[in-house]
Amino acid sequence: MKVPGWAAQLRRLTDWLVVDCLGGPRPWKLSWVINFQKGGTFFFLAALIWFYDNHSTAAWVYLALHGSYGLAWLIKDLSFPDAGWQKRITIAGGINAFLGVLGWYWVFGWLLISGYADPNYPLPEPVWFAVCTSLCLIGTVIMIAADAQKYYTLRVQRGLITDGLHRWIRHPNYLGEIMIYLSFALMVWHWLPFVVLALVWIGLFAVNMIHKEASMSRYAEWADYKRRSWWLVPGVW
Known about the structure:
By secondary structure, this protein is mainly alpha-helical. Helices cover 70% and strands 2% of the residues.
């Protein structure tokens, strides 16, 4: 399977911006930048609640969802780190990774807690919060389970992973991440988070999944596995 030209070009651009930008020393790993943002989210949101003196139910629910997800990510990374995040990156690359993508996730919380976004949810608040909480929790379980399965399976045997969550969908970790961040966007209920997520999902997630499928296609059982599985949602896509 050949990677489409547009996906290959986007991958080269992303790698240069995040890994090699401007050259020079590579003092940190990409995982350190990611973990700083993920682990710092709980404290950043708590500081926003204090600064804006916003003790609304929405603010505290958002802190619980986004902040706890970040701490869960740290636990996951300590338990079974993703090899793809261990690459050394330049100083400019780390800044780009934070300001270009990760930092925007903090803007979601600022929009809600500062009051700049005044969400008018399409359902009563308790119902909407329950929907967002369920989406975040289920997404977190799917993401962590998929990453754990990949990490421990590949330690024992290389090759396609076609059981567990991967039996039905080929990219369950991305499905989990999409569900998680969709829950944050729904909590904020402002147009900006949806634009950011659309750019990330198309420019990063879709490109990564295309490259992953091109890599998996080298295995003899790939054609059969692709025929009986789905990208992200069984029976839909």
